[in-house]
Amino acid sequence: MRRLAQRTHPVDLSTLRSWTFITNHAQVLLALARNPRASVVELADAAQITERSAYRVLADLQKAGYVRRTKVGRENRYEINRQQALHDPMMEGGVVGDLLKLVAGEVTRRPGRVRAAD
């Protein structure tokens, strides 16, 4: 068995699978919060996912009550339900509006720390 310490070839980090801290669902929700009139194409682009994935995420968010869809002519408009409870143990008792303030709120810098503005 070869030992890892004897490896002569460097590991190419660009081949590793990329990931983010924020899920696709949260990214679509944040993109929608930033641009309420965004199309699915624009939401997919902002979240860096396919249009098909964006439709699936929007369907999940609608089913769970986080987003409402309204048909306006030939377009769909999406509205975030900011009072919808977050069903996440880390955000116990929180609502969508709290999450949006936390993640998408204006960020102010102080020496040595970063915090969301109130």
List the helices and strands and how they pair.
Elements: H1 24-34, H2 40-47, H3 51-63, E1 67-72, E2 75-80, H4 96-104, E3 107-110, E4 113-116
Antiparallel strand pairs: 1-2, 3-4
Characterise the protein shown here.
The chain is α+β, with helices and mostly antiparallel strands. It has one domain: Arc Repressor Mutant, subunit A, CATH 1.10.10. It is built from four helices and four strands. The strands form two sheets. It has a two-stranded antiparallel sheet with strand order 1-2. A hairpin with a 2-residue loop joins strand 3 and strand 4. The longest helix is centred in the middle third of the chain and has 13 residues. The relative contact order is 0.12.
Oligomer: single chain
Taken in chain order, the helices and strands follow as HHHEEHEE
| Apparent shape | globular
Structural class: alpha+beta
How does CATH name the architecture?
Orthogonal Bundle
Q: What is the β-strand count?
A: 4
Helix content: 25-40%
What is the CATH class designation? Mainly Alpha
CATH level-four homologous superfamily name: Winged helix-like DNA-binding domain superfamily/Winged helix DNA-binding domain
Distance between the termini: 57 Å
Largest sheet: 2 strands, antiparallel
